[in-house]
Amino acid sequence: MTDNSNKEPRKNIIEQIRSWLGLENPPPQKNGLPGKSGFNMWYLLILFLFITSVQQFFLAPKVEPIPYSKFKQYVTEGKVGTLTIEPEKIRGTLTEKEKPGQEFTTVRVTDPDLVKDLDAHNVSYSGRYANKFLSFLLAWIIPIGIFYLIWRFSMKKMGPGMGVMSFSKNKAKIFAESETKVSFADVAGIDEAKEELQEIVEFLTNPGKFQKLGGRIPKGVLLVGPPGTGKTLLAKAVAGEAKVPFFSISGSEFVEMFVGVGAARVRDLFSQAAKQAPCIIFIDELDALGKARGMNVMGGHDEREQTLNQLLVEMDGFDTNKGVIIMSATNRPEILDPALLRPGRFDRQVLVDRPDINGREAILKIHAKNVLLGPAVDLRKIAGRTPGFVGADLANLVNESALLAARKNKETVEAAEFDEAIDRVVGGLEKKNRVMNAREKEIVTFHESGHAIVAESVEHADPVHKISIIPRGIAALGYTQQQPIEDRYLMTRSELLDRLAVLLGGRVAEELVFDEISTGAQNDLQRATDIARSMVTEYGMSERLGLVTYERARQPMFAPEGFAAGKTYSEEKAAQIDKEIARFVDEAHQRVRKILTERRVVLDKLAQLLAEKESVQGEELRKMMADS
Q1: For a tag on the chain, would you pick the N or C end, based on fewer CB atoms within 10 A?
Q2: For 277, which DSSP code?
C-alpha cells in the first residue's frame, strides 16, 4: 500500500509555482474554437537565466585573471606549466603545489623578451590564430537566430490578433455556444423586438422548416434604438437561444491607420464565420463603419469607405442557407449608407425602443433578483417614477440603491434608497456642504415654490412629487420633481401651454416677491423658448401662421457648403415667427403671474416650510393648497 500523503502538498506547491510563472495549461478547444493560450514570456526568461547560471557556475572552467607582472614572476620562478599565446591574451596553467593545474589568463603586452624568457625556463608554449568567421558566427549569427526562433515561437503561441504581422486578422470576440449564457429570459421591456427575433432563432435551430417551402431568411438584421435599450444584450440572447457561436465586434475595430487593413479584417471575419456555421456575426455601433459614402470633405477614397465596400461585397457573396446571420446595432440609422439598408443586406430593421411602464417594471425585476429588497419597496411605483429610463438607466438605479443601503449599514434596500437614487440619477450628486448666503437661499426657495404651485394649479401638468432646495449636479440649486401619471406619446396644445406655464413659475415668483430677477431661470427660459418655437414652427399650433411648418431641415455636421439647406421662408415670415414665439411666452407669463398673485399666501407658506425642511413632499403641498 503506497503512501500518497506527501504527493498532494507537493502537487499544490508545483501548481502554485506554475501559476506564479503563468504556465497554466491552455484549456482544450471547444467546438473548433481556439482556446486561450497559456504561453508566458516569463517562461523563456527563467529558462535563459537557468541555462546561463549552469554554464557560469558549474560547466565553465574557473580561470584566474592575473597581472602581466605576476605572470612574468611565475615564469621566473618556474611555476608556469603550459602556455597558449593568442593575439590579445595569454592563457596557461600553473605547476605550483598550492594550485596544481590552476588555469590563468593575462593580457598580452608588447614584450620582445617573452620568448627568450620562456625558452630559458623550459616553459612549453604554443600560439593560436583568431578565426574571425567563427567569432562572427558565435557573436552575431547564432544569437540572432536564437532570438528569431524565440520571436516566432511567441508570436505563434500568442495567436491571431497579436504581433506586427496580424493587422489583417479581425478582432472579433468569439463566444462558443456554451459560453453565451444569455437567453430571452434575461431580456425584458422589449417584447416586440424579441418576437421579431424569434424567427431568427427558429431558422438557426430548424432551417429545414423554411428551406422546404422555398423561404429565405433575411441576411441581415439591424437593431435600431437609443443607447442603453439592450441591443447588444438582445443579440447575445439570440445566439444563446439558438446555441450557436457568436462573433462580436465593434464597427470601429475594422479601421486602422494602414490602408487595406479594414477590408482584410472583414474578409477574415466572414471566412472564420463560414467555418463555424451556423453562427451569428454581431457588429456593434455600425454607424462607425457604415456611414454614408461621399460625405468626406477631404475628397478621395478613404480607408473607411474601402472597408464598407468590402462589407457590402461580403454580404452579397454568402448564402444565408449556410446558417450565417449578420446582426448589427446602431442608434444613428439616418446616417447609414443606403446600400446597407437595401433588401438582400440589412433587409430587416428591428426597433428596440425605450420601455413603457410595464417594460420598466419587468426590467427592474430582473436587476433586483439578487438584491435584498425591503417589504415596502413597490417596483411598480418606481417604474412609474422613471419615465424615459432605458435598461441601462434602470440597472444603474438598482445598483445605486444597493450602494446607498450598504453605506447606511442597512440589511435590506428600502424605498427611501430608491427615492434617493432616482434623485441622484436625474439631478446629480447632492451637495449639502455647498455654502449659500441667506439671500440666495431665499431666492431659490421662492423660485422652486413658484414652479410647484403653478404645476398644481394648471389642469394638464404632472403632479408634484417633491420640492427640494438642496443643490445637485453642476448648476442645479434646487429642483421641483413631477411624477407622470402614465406614459405619454402625444402632447396637446393645452398640455404644452401648461408645461410652458410651469417653466415660467420660478421667474414670476422672483418678480412678485423680490421685485427683482436673477440668473436662476436661465434653463427654464431656454426650455420654454424651445417649446414655444416648436409649437410655432413644427406643430402648426399658431392661429396666425396656420398649418404650415417652418422647421429647418437637418443636415450633416461636416457637410460642404453646397449641402447646407438655407431657410425655406422669407425674412418677413421669419419676423412673424419671432413675434408668435414672443406672444406665446408673454401670454404664459401673464397667466402665471395671475396664478401666483391669487395664491400668494400659499407661496409664502411653502417657501417658509422649504427653508425649514429643505425638502417637501407633494402630499404636503396639496394639503396646504386645499386648506388655503
Answers
A1: N
A2: -
Please list, in sequence order, all residues whose beta carbon lies within 8 angstroms of the beta carbon of residue 19, skipping any fewer than 6 positions away: none
* Helix locations, 468-570, DSSP H: 493-514, 522-537
Amino acid in the structure at residue 109? V
What residue type is 614 in one-letter code? E
Dist. CA 434–CA 428, nearest whole Å: 14
Alpha-carbon span 239 to 177, nearest angstrom: 7
How far is it, in rounded angstroms, from Cα 502 to Cα 497?
9
Q: How far apart are alpha carbons 310 and 550 in whole angstroms?
A: 41
CATH of the structural domain 438-627, one choice from 3.40.50.1000, 3.90.1640.10, 3.40.50.2000, 1.20.58.760? 1.20.58.760
Task: List CB contacts of 114: < 8 A, sequence separation 6 or more.
Answer: none
Q: Which distant-in-sequence residues (6+ apart) come within 8 Å of 175 by Cβ?
A: 236, 239, 245, 246, 248
- Sketch the domain layout of the chain as residue ranges: 17-59, 63-128, 133-159, 173-351, 357-426, 438-627
Contact at 8 Å (CB) between 518 and 443?
yes
| pLDDT per position as a tens digit, 246-291 | 888 888 777 665 556 778 888 888 888 888 878 888 888 888 888 8
Dig out the grid coordinates for 273 from the structure: 464565420
**Annotated catalytic residue within 448, 456, 510, 580:** 448
Q: What is the pLDDT of residue 163?
A: 46
pLDDT at 379: 92
What is the pTM for the complete model shown? 0.65
What counts of helices (H) and strands (E) characterise the chain?
22, 14
pLDDT < 70 positions in the chain: 1-45, 47-48, 51-61, 97-99, 128-139, 154-173, 175-180, 255-260, 294-303, 317-322, 432-435, 473-475, 552-567
User: Nearest to residue 388, comparing CAs of 350, 407, 360?
Assistant: 360
β-strand pairing of 246-250 with 279-284:
parallel
CATH number of the structural domain 173-351: 3.40.50.300
Edge-to-edge strand order for the sheet containing 464-468? 479-482, 464-468, 615-617
In whole angstroms, what is the distance from residue 50 CA to residue 239 CA? 48
CATH number for the domain running over 63-128:
3.30.720.210
Q: Three-class SS of residue 108?
A: coil
- Phi, psi (rounded to 5 degrees) for 581: -60, -45
In the block, cell 415660467 appears at 504
Give the CA count within 13 Å in the CB-facing half-sphere of 94.
20
| Active site annotation includes 177 | no
Find, among 462, 372, 377, the residue nearest to 422 by Cα: 377
Q: What percent of the chain has pLDDT over 90?
A: 26
